[in-house]
Design brief:
Oligomer: single chain
CATH architecture of one domain: Orthogonal Bundle
Number of helices: 5
Structural class: alpha+beta
Strand content: 15-25%
Mean pLDDT: 81
Shape: rod-shaped
Order of helices and strands: HHEEEEEHHHEEEEEEEE
Low-confidence stretches: 1-8, 13-18
Helix content: 40-55%
Radius of gyration: 64 Å
Length: about 425
């Protein structure tokens, strides 16, 4: 009976309602929930304050060191992984052929300059000679004018002499007629013995003398006529000489500008040839300078495939110069991560090689997705594009002093974390 009573008491106790939690329990629960909610909000806010990706690497400029001319490598002064300074001599081509080209171009240039020096005085010489020619022709004109005037004066004098002789002939003929008439009359008188024989002889002698004088005057008239004709020809000759001198003067004046222009043009041609030869010399000197190949930037040599004695052609790559002093991070973020990303936002960059964080800033966002920049951009022939989350390259610049020892190398993996809030 006693055992039954205990069992009953036990069953009764199990069926009785439990008492609720006390106030302390509720306070503790609320506090725990509040702390958990606050922590969750903080965690959520922290998770939303950055965007990160592991699709990133260190990037940098890799300068291709090439030969600008062809030739045989005389010497190579660097090895792979050697650190070099900008302007450091890396390799050298055999300069013999290019030195010969410089010497030849120099000789040709000197010849061209000599030709310029030879023709340049011709301009002033031509100017002086043409001026002298014009002056000479003007003097000839003056002389010809004087000769024309003298010839005309001589012709006028000859004409006056001729006319004077003609007048004398007319007078002599008149006197001869009178003398012949007197002779005929005296002849009749002497026949009648009305006058003496002496008087008749005197009249007869006078008639003969007058006849001879008339003939002499006629001969003088013929000579004077010839003098008039000669004087006229002298006038014509002097006038022809004057016209010739005038024509030479006009021709000299007309040709003078063309002759000077021709000499100037010849000088310009020689000067152009000299300038061309100067250009050829400059090119030859440039080619000679190209026989020495220098480092374009401070960096580390890589991918060297140049050895002494090797024959190289223009544009052939000899080695690469990696500029380790100018590095950045190229991070391929998903397009959905770019909503709040802006330039100059702070970035924490974790580099796997050193297990170290570096500080940087967002510099820029690429103009297109990585797929668009690929060699074969994806295209759908049907025109139906499958929606795939694209990645867009973001350029992140390292802050100055972050890699003071230049340990970072292009191609190293990185995990950037961009703080967007």
């Amino acid at each position: 009976m006693a055992e039954q009573a205990e069992v009953k008491d036990t069953l009764d106790a199990g069926t009785k309602p439990k008492r609720g939690m006390g106030a302390v329990g509720w306070i503790v629960l609320v506090a725990v929930l509040a702390v958990a909610g606050f922590g969750g909000m903080k965690l959520w806010s922290w998770l939303q304050s950055y965007e990160e990706t592991d699709d990133a690497q260190i990037d940098g400029d890799i300068y291709s060191v090439t030969s600008r001319i062809g030739g045989s490598l005389k010497a190579v002064y660097v090895q792979d992984n050697q650190q070099v300074k900008a302007g450091q001599l890396l390799a050298e081509l055999d300069p013999a052929d290019y030195q010969l080209a410089v010497a030849q171009a120099t000789a040709t240039l000197n010849e061209a300059r000599t030709q310029v020096a030879a023709v340049r005085p011709n301009v002033s010489i031509t100017s002086t000679s043409t001026d002298t020619a014009v002056s000479s022709y003007q003097a000839d004109i003056a002389g010809a004018l004087a000769q024309v005037a003298a010839a005309q004066a001589q012709a006028a004098a000859a004409q006056r002499d001729y006319e004077s002789i003609l007048a004398q002939i007319r007078q002599a003929e008149a006197d001869q007629v009178k003398t012949q008439a007197d002779l005929a009359r005296y002849k009749q008188l002497v026949a009648k013995d009305e006058i003496s024989k002496l008087q008749y002889d005197q009249v007869e002698a006078s008639a003969k003398s007058m006849s001879a004088m008339t003939d002499s005057r006629k001969a003088s008239a013929e000579a004077a006529a010839r003098n008039v004709e000669a004087a006229a020809r002298n006038v014509e000759a002097a006038q022809a000489k004057l016209r010739q001198a005038q024509m030479h003067e006009v021709e000299a004046k007309q040709n003078r500008p063309q002759q000077i222009l021709l000499q100037n043009a010849l000088v310009h041609v020689r000067e152009a040839t000299s300038s061309k030869e100067q250009t050829m010399l400059d090119q030859a000197q440039l080619n000679l300078s190209y026989t020495k190949i220098f480092a374009p930037v401070d960096g580390i040599i890589g991918r060297k495939n140049a050895e002494p004695g090797q024959q190289v052609s223009p544009g052939q790559q000899l080695m690469a110069d990696v500029a380790i002093s100018n590095l950045w991070v190229t991070a391929n973020f998903k397009e959905t991560q770019l909503k709040k990303m802006r330039p100059k936002q702070r970035v924490t960059i974790h580099v796997d090689a050193f297990d170290q964080d570096f500080e940087g800033l967002v510099e820029s966002v690429a103009g297109a997705s990585g797929a668009k920049f690929s060699l074969l951009p994806p295209e759908n022939a049907t025109g139906n594009y499958v929606k795939v989350v694209q990645r867009v390259p973001v350029r992140i610049r390292l802050k100055e002093g972050q890699d003071a020892e230049h340990r970072l190398r292009p191609g190293m993996s990185a995990e950037p974390k961009v703080w967007i809030e």
